[in-house]
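We emphasize that the prediction below concerns an isolated chain of 596 residues; any contacts that depend on oligomerization or on bound cofactors are therefore not represented. The input was used exactly as deposited, without trimming of termini.
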Amino acid sequence: MTNKIRADLVAILALLAFVLTGILSPIEALSGFSNSVVIMIAALFVIGAGILRTGLAQMAGSLLLKYSDDSEKRLFILLLVIVASVGAFMSNTGTVALMLPIVVSIAISIKSSPSKYLIPLSYMASFSGLLTLIASPPNLIVSQMLVDNGYEKLSFFQITPIGIIGVVVGIIYLYFVRNKLLPKRKSATTDVDNKLSAKQLATDYELGGNLFLLKVPAISGLVGKRLAQLKIPATYHLCILKISRKSTEGMNLLPMNFHEMAGPNSFIQEKDRLYIQGSRSNVEKFAFDYNLSIEESSSEADELVSKQLGIAEVLLTPHSSFINETLRSIGFREKYNLNILGINRQGEYVEKDMSKQTLRFGDALLVQGTWDSIELLSRDTRNVVVIGQPKEHASMAAASGKASIAGAIMILMVLLMVLEIFPAVISVLIGAALMILTGCVRNMDDAYGQINWESVVLIGAMLPMATALEKTGGMVLLSEGIIQFMGGLGPLGVLGGIFFITMLFGQFISNTATAVLFAPIGLSAALSIGVSPYPFLIAVAVGASMAFSTPVASPTNALVMTAGGYQFKDFVKIGVPLQFIMLIVMMIAIPILFPL
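Result of the prediction step, given as a token string:
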């Protein structure tokens, strides 16, 4: 609670304490890391990256903004309603992982802090777990408990009225506290908005009007020749930056345009498209001489960036060996396999005769080439500093235009989970693998880089706590004591006691573990006082899902903690009042809908 030690380290220390004191064996202590929930969360980060990289999150956010009519209040409510609707048919963890990039994209687009939206996202996903039987593990656990003891199982929508009440109360509460209790912190997630984009770089270096797209017909004299034979820079004062042609090369399963960085050994083929930098008059003369057609390009930034090629800004370090040298003398292109598109010298942009310019400290170079070459250049820290994150830009470029593919993968995953064709974790892993195979996520390295390992370690290390509490008998002792204490108030008092203790322990262990431990206690309490077990087991399912007051209460809270830049006290401040409101509401609603 002090937040002086990172949450994941605290979880590891707790895990070690259980082993060192003999409460858990090493196998039991490490069992959380083999739990399907942990694997599923890691895979969901990959799916979330695909949704964000392809622009699907931005498209969904734009659609939400359109229907909210630029009203922040309407947007907030609409967002929570959509989260509840999605969460009714899949796990709350899956719901948050899928919606998180969309919510962050919306927050950035309206210049707001994601922290205003991510705790409500997590809470509403928990409420949505009460809308259908399959939406939350506790629902399935209490339903099975009824079957095992000779009662009718819960139907698919039997718990839905309770869920609707929870969703409505949750939306009303969050609506009124959103500007008072929710923090407005900048999180690491918003940094993506501050990175220099290719479009911004193209604008800064005044490339507009200097980049042209030429198509090579079969009759052109360029076909079948190497660029070294043509001597285009010397004859026409033009620089061919890249060659684009149709290809199905690479690991990508779908047809794509292959972009090759132009070099002396590049061969020109029929139907190639050449991207050339230079003046219009020189380009027109070159096109006339070789029977080329000049086509309109969409924008400089779009044409300079692709899955294979990109641009970046490079600064010279104070001790760079490039200072007082020319690009030609240092053999920059040959050494790094990169083109120089422009030089920024104290705000003035040099684009002509760059190879003859003597470089000075403070110069910034705009380079173009393969993403791998740009990454290699970034390692030469003695001579240059590459601004921004080439890997991030490469991933965004690789996924560009694949929003529909990412959407189809997401729909397929949800259908597999709803129809229960495979276990939920397998459905999610299928989605993650498809994101990589279709290029929505650039490659395996990119996929690993998108996983928030802090959240994975935190949840994996906390799961064995339920085993420790069960083995020591402490939970049963406390719960039975509360039942005895509340027994004098009649069946409603015992029901309230069961709900409260379930909700209390649900703040520290998973809702699944809480339901497993308290379902038999709830059933036993109901039978001992001679009332229907249904309201008691419904109280266990609902109480286990009311995980609002700590970041470790639910995987969804852990997921949004890092993304929103939250602290432990934020969950306490917002969650505790909501817990007591729900206690009062559910003690009225449950006996009415499920009579004692």
